[in-house]
Design goal:
The protein has 7 helices and 8 strands. The chain is an alpha/beta fold. It has one domain: Phosphoglycerate mutase-like (Rossmann fold, 3-Layer(aba) Sandwich), CATH 3.40.50.1240. It has a 6-stranded mixed sheet. β3, α3 and β4 form a beta-alpha-beta unit. α2 packs across α3 and α6 packs across α7. The radius of gyration is 18 Å and the shape is globular. The relative contact order is 0.24.
């Protein structure tokens, strides 16, 4: 298989085999961080650090409040929260964990935003006006067409690494309680706070999709929710249940 970056690589899809041995259902929630100072200023942030705005903090609190409708909300000790190391994601995760009385968030480097190369920290409006040729290439190729930006193979592999970690946590293979994988101690929900670019790939790898387009709608604190349910000792059912609308 040749992907759009021109690299030949084997097809790998996150499916039910990744959760073989799961003892009980678990939900994975992938959430974009709240509004950041970079979002507010119309900047391509990439891996540059920006804090949440006041609006972003309020968005995180409203996202936390939205969890009350889920059954696992009543057992906060069985919810694990993972976050990108970047400030805008960490602050979102901290607000959610504190509001819901979940365990403190754990940094997972693979949730880091994609590297946007030469456009890191650049105003989007300026790029559109002053780098028209490069912008048109971006419109056709997304980050594949931007010098220095992270490419599809790297993003796909990082998304696989996130899913591999979630699978291990869900089955009690990593973490404080990894020596005892009894169902009573396993998490019922795994919450990942990440970024718009990376979240695209966390969804795409469940379909084996290696193209930027079509793009998925992902607003600040937008949520994608997936339920994993064991159906046999060697397979689990993965179901995308929900794309939650932005919280304003």
């Amino acid at each position: 298989m040749v992907n759009s970056s021109g690299v030949t690589s084997p097809q790998m899809v996150v499916d039910g085999h990744w959760f073989a041995g799961l003892l009980e259902p678990v939900e994975c929630l992938f959430i974009r961080h709240g509004e950041s100072e970079g979002n507010q200023e119309g900047i391509f942030q990439g891996r540059r650090d920006y804090s949440l705005t006041q609006r972003g903090r309020e968005q995180a609190r409203r996202r936390a409040a939205s969890f009350e409708k889920y059954p696992w909300y009543k057992t906060p000790e069985r919810v694990r929260v993972f976050t990108s190391p970047l400030a805008r994601a960490r602050q979102t995760a901290e607000i959610i964990s504190e509001t819901c009385r979940f365990n403190p968030p754990e940094v997972l480097d693979a949730l880091m935003e994609l590297d946007v190369g030469i456009w890191t920290g650049q105003q989007i409006r300026r790029i559109k006006e002053e780098e028209k040729e490069q912008w048109e290439q971006f419109r056709h190729m997304s980050w594949e067409g931007v010098p220095g930006a992270e490419k599809i193979d790297s993003l796909y592999n990082r998304a696989l690494a996130v899913w591999a970690h979630l699978s291990a946590v869900a089955q009690g293979k990593v973490g404080a309680d990894s020596q005892d994988s009894s169902a009573a101690l396993l998490p019922r929900a795994l919450i990942c706070i990440t970024h718009g670019g990376m979240l695209q790939w966390l969804v795409k790898v469940t379909f084996g999709y290696r193209s930027w387009f079509p793009l998925l709608p992902i607003h600040n604190v937008g949520l994608y929710r997936c339920r994993i349910e064991p159906v046999s000792p060697s397979f689990a059912l993965l179901s995308w249940l929900e794309l939650d609308s932005p919280l304003e």
